[in-house]
Every structure is written in structure tokens, then in C-alpha cells.
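Title: Comparing notes on inverse folding

I've been comparing how different people in this forum approach sequence design from structure. To keep things fair, I'm posting one structure and asking everyone to reply with a full sequence. Here's the target:
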């Protein structure tokens, strides 16, 4: 968000917690809109707000998350449903709400934040992998369907990113979250991902970086993570 605002974009910052959005807006000049993407009413209101201001050039579908690390045998159906609801259906709702305007723009862009989990299985990951794989296939399908409308569809697939809440939400405690990154010299940061998002959206519109896989060097693959002194 900061990276896009810094390169001249007018950014609408969307999340559920209004107080955090207000602080971000204060810092960056972004337009805050509190909305839950799992609520159709919220998404309709969000689209109404943005379109009333004159439309948009790009949509970044970033909201998502993981809950639980249970095996398929023991996985919570509620956790799986929650992951599908936000990563797949939430992304679907927001994309549907803005596609007519993006087509009308003549040079629209949609950027999806999926994950390396979308195409690599790991023990305990099935619920999140399935949700991200669903989002990933929606992304590839969307690219095929929207090319004739000149809507560019970009997918960014990060590996290990150390963000404030992702692993805590998934594992339930700060302590468990810290272990995910223990000894890893330099996990990716939110800023790293934001730089790649801004880079891909700032390229001339006819260039579509259609799938970008980004990992820290220490994570050579999902199952090969270099940890020092951990
Ligand atoms: N961290 C990683 O290792 C990693 C790796 C690969 C891909 N990803 C993906 O990258 C994206 C961002 O992850 P992150 O690490 O930045 O996670 P995060 O720290 O948990 O941030 C998630 C963001 O999405 C918002 N959000 C969550 N649910 C929402 C909802 N229902 N409606 C509206 N906004 C919602 C949150 O704000 P509110 O809670 O205020 O709504 C927050 O701003 C996700 O799609 C995630 O799956 C993360």
C-alpha cells in the first residue's frame, strides 16, 4: 500500500479494523474503507464508494489468511470453511464487484496474492493449500476470460513472509508464530511483497507478469529452509 501510494497511486485501503485503517490513512494519504470481504453488503458498499469517486485502474486482492495446521485426518471443518470463505469466496466477491469497471477502464489490472501453498502440499497445510489452490485456479481462469477485455491478471505467490499476524492467527500464539521464522536469516517482509506488487502494476499495461513466485533465499523450497542456531 505504501509502495503504491509512494509511486503515485491513489489507494483505497480496505480491511475490517477501522482504527488501523485510520492510522494508515493518516500516514500515507490512502482512502480508508472498512469492509469485510466475506460480507456481500460490505463489498457492495465498498464498490459503491470507489465507483462513485470515478472508478479504478487496478484491484489488489490481498486479504486472506490461514487457520490451523492440522492433518487432513484431524482438520477442523470450520477452519477449512473459514479459509475458503475469505481466500476464495471473498476474493470472488470483490473481483465480481469491480470487474465491470475494470473492463470499462480499457486497461484494467487485477492482482491476486496467492501463495506457494497454492501448488505445494505440506503436512498440516491441506486446508490452506486447498483454499489457495482454489484462488490460484480462479486467477488463471480469470486471465483467460478477461484478456479480451484487456484486463491484465497478475498473480504474486509468496513463500515465507514474516508479517505481524499471519502465523499468530494460524497457530494461535505469538510463541508458536515465532518458531515459524526461528533462525531464518531473512524471511520476506510485507514491504518486499509490496515492492513486487508495485513493480508489476507500474509496468506498462501490455506486460503481464502473470505468475510471480517469490521466496526468501533461505527457503529454497517449501521443505528446505535454512535455519541457523535454531
Ligand atoms: N505471511 C505469509 O507467509 C504469506 C505467504 C504467502 C501468501 N500470503 C498471503 O498474503 C496475503 C496477506 O497475508 P499477511 O501475511 O499480510 O496476513 P495478515 O498479516 O494476517 O494480514 C491480512 C490482512 O487482510 C485483512 N483481512 C483479513 N480478513 C479480511 C476480511 N474478511 N475482510 C477484509 N480484510 C480482511 C486484515 O485486516 P483486518 O483483520 O483488519 O480485516 C489484514 O490487513 C494473504 O492472502 C495470505 O494468504 C501470506
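Reply #1:
Here's my take.
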Amino acid at each position: 500500500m505504501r509502495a503504491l501510494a509512494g509511486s503515485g497511486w491513489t489507494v483505497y485501503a480496505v480491511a475490517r479494523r477501522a482504527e488501523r485503517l485510520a492510522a494508515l490513512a493518516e500516514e500515507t494519504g490512502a482512502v480508508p474503507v472498512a469492509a469485510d470481504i466475506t460480507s456481500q453488503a460490505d463489498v457492495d458498499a465498498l464498490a459503491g464508494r470507489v465507483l462513485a469517486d470515478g472508478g479504478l485502474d487496478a484491484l489488489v486482492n490481498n486479504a486472506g489468511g490461514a487457520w490451523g495446521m492440522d492433518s487432513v485426518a484431524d482438520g477442523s471443518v470450520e477452519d477449512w470453511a473459514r479459509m475458503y470463505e475469505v481466500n476464495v469466496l471473498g476474493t470472488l466477491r470483490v473481483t465480481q464487484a469491480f470487474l465491470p469497471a475494470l473492463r470499462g477502464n480499457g486497461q484494467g489490472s487485477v492482482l491476486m496474492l496467492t501463495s506457494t501453498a497454492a501448488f505445494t502440499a505440506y503436512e498440516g497445510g491441506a486446508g490452506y493449500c486447498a483454499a489457495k489452490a482454489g484462488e490460484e485456479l480462479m486467477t488463471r481462469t480469470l486471465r483467460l476470460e478477461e484478456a479480451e477485455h484487456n484486463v491484465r491478471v497478475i498473480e504474486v505467490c509468496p513463500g515465507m513472509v514474516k508479517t505481524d499476524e499471519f502465523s499468530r492467527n494460524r497457530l494461535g500464539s505469538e510463541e508458536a508464530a515465532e518458531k515459524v521464522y526461528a533462525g531464518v536469516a531473512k524471511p520476506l517482509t510485507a514491504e518486499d511483497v509490496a515492492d513486487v506488487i508495485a513493480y508489476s502494476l507500474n509496468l506498462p499495461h501490455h506486460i503481464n507478469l502473470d505468475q510471480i513466485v517469490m521466496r526468501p533465499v533461505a527457503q529454497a523450497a517449501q521443505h528446505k529452509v535454512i535455519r541457523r542456531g535454531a
